[in-house]
Protein 1
Amino acid sequence: MLSRRTLITLGLSAAALGAVGYATWPTMGSYTEEAARQRALTSGNSARGDLLRMATLAANGHNTQPWMFRFGKDKVSILPDFTRRTEVVDPDDHHLFVSLGCAAENLIIAAQPLGWQATAVTNGTQIDVMLASAKAAKSDLRQAIPLRQSTRSEYDGQQVSASDIALLKSAASQEGVSVLFFTDRDAREDILEFVVEGNSAQMDDPAFVQELRNWIRFTPDQAMQNGDGLFAACSGNPVVPGWIAERMFGLMFKKRTENDKYRNHIRSSAGVAVFVGNREDPEHWIKVGQSFQRFALQATVLGIRNAHINQPIEVPRLRGEFARWLKMPDTRPDLIVRFGRAPALPMSLRRPVADVTV
Ligand SMILES: Cc1cc2nc3c(=O)[nH]c(=O)nc-3n(C[C@H](O)[C@H](O)[C@H](O)COP(=O)(O)O)c2cc1C
């Protein structure tokens, strides 16, 4: 919530803010319609169009959508789009390749009901998803693709059952990747300390803050015009006119406020999953993405939300320390994700399929 002091600094009363808030914001309805249209199960597109749309609904760092797709004979190639790098937070393109892995996994899962059995083969920096004719098969994970989201809000503080955790582990299981689950309080508090330290380092880095700001879409119009980036409402922030939102960002995006937010987020979560590839190369980063995407889809099937808290693996000096804390000193931890239950936030948008096809 906005503090009274912040509202006064912005020259707004709570009532005025409510009047322009999420529920009544004029273009929020069009935004919600566009998000739903992009996720329609029978969009009227060709099978190829549907397949690519489902692939693009994958999780991806800063929602830059750093991918291009090319249909070949019996395969779809997924190519990195290096023009969409985030060079400050992701200087070695680790997140970029994890994101390609997420898209590959969605593509594999979405191919099944369309009558293809799909397998991913990494060729250098490109993924070839090979398509072989097969009996069409429905799956819960496929149904979850349009419903999955990153939910960056406070969760309900309740535990997740052991049987649900077993299903998440099984879904995330992937050759070349270890997935560790932490549900006890002490471990979560240790992870929280790493997140706060990593977040503090990032907030002290003007280049990090500028890059993040470049990808924030403050209003529904900005989000719809770009079809990418981090729309404020998808992070649980109020929807207000652009000029107010930009001033609010300057006033509210402060180290202390953000660290307090992460404390609430992690303490209200049921647990944290950490993904660690066996090796530090694009092939394994892609595998991590595949494992994470299945975890997130299985979570969606179970009504469990998730959100990334990657700060400790994004700040190089903390990454090694975090690996030692995991008792895996010779590895590079790839992703840190909290999970638990909470209401949905607005869904994020994607660019048109035609813009990501070569
Ligand atoms: C490799 C990778 C890194 C990510 N890092 C973060 C992160 O540090 N913080 C965060 O809130 N979300 C993170 N995300 C989630 C993306 O921001 C999110 O997937 C994207 O905005 C699209 O939104 P959606 O997941 O709701 O479809 C990450 C996702 C991926 C695949």
Protein 2
Amino acid sequence: MEMLRRWLAAGLWAGTLLVPVHAEEPSVEAGLRVSRIGGCHDCHTQGFAETGGQIDPSMALKGSPVGFMGPWGTTYPTNLLLTVEPMSEDAFLDFAKTLETRPPMPWFNLHYMTEFELRSLFRYIKSLGEPGEPAPEYLAPGETPKTPWIVFAPPQMPE
Ligand code: HEC
């Protein structure tokens, strides 16, 4: 009987300990983590890759003038502060769940994010301050970019 009471007590403790985990509120800190492990800064934050993963707060997610050129034309990592500027948190949720873009943006990864992750990401982007300037406009195939670009070409097979 004493054993049973101890087991029950232990079980109840485990239950109460789990509650805060499920009730975790979306936060700026969680959003920063999502953006880091989601790889968003790799493309959307200038200087990030070159500095081994340092985030310059004045550049964070503000887009990049380095284009990605491929069969789709030339695309530029967007200034995400401008993207979310007119959106409510709920609107961002719908936007992220249905987003489709040109390459090499991994838009499909956003569809797998949980509501907690997307709400946190939104709060993190909103916390970054003044949106600043937009990234260069998309260029159609054949148009020559005015800023540096990376070529995403299909592999050449030896004959
Ligand atoms: C490999 C580089 C790369 C990575 C990694 C990347 N993006 Fe992008 N992203 C781009 C490019 C390039 C575009 C522009 C695509 C276009 O012009 O169609 C873009 C576009 C977007 C857009 C559309 C913006 C708009 O205003 O329509 C959103 C939102 C976005 N990215 C969010 C993210 C998030 C969040 C992450 C991290 C989970 C991420 N991206 C990771 C390159 C990247």
